[in-house]
Amino acid sequence: MLIVGLGNPGSDYKATRHNIGFMVIDELIRRHNASKISSSSFQGELYKFQNHFLLKPLTYMNLSGESVVKVKQFYKIEDVVVIHDDLDLPFGALRFKKGGGHGGHNGLKSIDSKISREYVRVRMGIAKPANKGEVASYVLSPFSATEQKCLPEWIDKCCDAVEFLLTHSLEETRCKYSQKAMEC
């Protein structure tokens, strides 16, 4: 299985809402002591544990599909899971689905164009800004101080869900780990 966390490279983006996928991958790397695989042709940071791959595309969000398709094709991987931020869900929500639309998320749009929509999505709710015109600055801003207190627990729960998904069905994972929001 290829597990992809979406985000943007660089210290300017490290703690932003848009990088929640990177945060989850970092924790999975730590939990499994995953080995780094070096190859600039993948356009991302790639790690492996057991028979599974962890990927942080370094193409910036809008071109994430470039990295995903290269790893998927090189290793002939069928099953892909993408962990991403979702404006349409309240903060702390955790949802799971296969396929569906990209909802305006440029990272998903890029992946859809390269490998189709038939992959599992782990949707992590970041809520919406008060003004629709502030979406770009909102997703690229850090979590609030209150939200930051909840991040470790939320990231842990997402990692638990992804690990469960490795040996269980999407439906079983959805039933066990979906949550509507998180109280901080």
Automatic annotation (TrEMBL):
What EC identifiers does the entry list?
3.1.1.29
- What InterPro entries does the entry give? Pept_tRNA_hydro, Pept_tRNA_hydro_CS, Pept_tRNA_hydro_sf
Q: Where is the active site?
A: H18
The EC class name is: hydrolase
Q: Which GO terms describe its biological process?
A: protein quality control for misfolded or incompletely synthesized proteins; rescue of stalled ribosome
Catalytic reaction list: an N-acyl-L-alpha-aminoacyl-tRNA + H2O = an N-acyl-L-amino acid + a tRNA + H(+)
Main subcellular location of this protein, as a coarse class: cytoplasm
Q: Which family does it belong to?
A: Belongs to the PTH family.
Task: Please identify the protein, giving its name as recorded.
Answer: Peptidyl-tRNA hydrolase
Q: Give the organism, scientific name.
A: Sulfurimonas sediminis
* Gene, per the UniProt record: pth
